[in-house]
Amino acid sequence: MEAEEALESIKQIFEERKGKVVSLGNLEEKVFLLSWQGVDYGDMTCQIYKPNGKPYTEQYFREIGKKLIDKIKKFLNIDDLDKRNFREELENFFDKNYNYSTKKLSYITAPEPDYTTSQELPNNTVSELNQNPFIPFSGRVEEKYLFFDREREIRRIFEVLNSGSSVVLIGEEGIGKSSLLWMINQQAKIFLKSERQPVFLDLNLLHNESQFYSELCHEIGIPDSKDYQLTRNLRSCKILLAIDNVGKLTSEGFTRNIRDYLRGLAEGINAPLKLILAATESLNNLFKDSQEQGNTSPLAGICQEEHIHPWNEATMRAFIANRLAKTSVSFTEEEIIQLIQESGGHPRKLMQLCYRTYSRYVESLQ
Asked: Considering the entire predicted model, what is its pTM?
């Protein structure tokens, strides 16, 4: 089976089973084709380029590859799929579950995937109404139709950014900081008064200062550089730099120097960088090394804090109603009250609890 045929088959399966809800992006398709041919992520940097002609990093392709494989594993139920056995496992799947003449899955062997409802989705079929809408369980929400609430926070954050200050989102784990950070980054071109190029870095994927500077330069589209040379390369740039999991700057491989440098690049209304960070606590408390000899965190001095709080009861009720709107299931008032109390307004916890509640309804119908 050739790579192009395999890709088209996967796309047809997604189209048949998921409509327009789940699809592969252009970059995911390119990574699929090269992965089928056995190309390593490192070698992909020489074969796929950004629209501006600049190369992507190997780490970026690893992230794209992971998302691609996770999609395929989830919706085709291939638990053992990974980069090393990519072609072998998919060919085995097609041999067992795919009718090449009709180009359709065998409904006997192929399980139905989870289905996410939304007001933007087309009308569901009867079978789709029983698919659990309470996903994703964890992690960053990157799809706009899955993002819920936080309009007031978004408005306040852009007010701060438009005033010339940088921002740090502070909140507990699972409160929705990463998803909010992603959405701010996506809407920057619309709501920033002074145009800035949005750049998103997740420090969970970067392990030292060298990787940080390299990824930053690649995302901006400038030559790899740091220190004074990076300052020179940024003179003509206006960047909104979103950094998720900024607490990782305390881990081995990072020093206070990088925070001092980021402050220098972000100071002043016309600075090359404006920062929007996500952290679990105040930056001055987060970076303990900054408190030596009476110093404060260099980032705390330029970032206005925006605390992300749990959802209130009205928002939780609206979220549950929104997700159930296009299903055949309704939660009882007693169940909703219990979900509200147990979750404490934490979006991730509420999602997980709702998923379990919904699953019990579906199991009772089988």
From this structure: 0.63
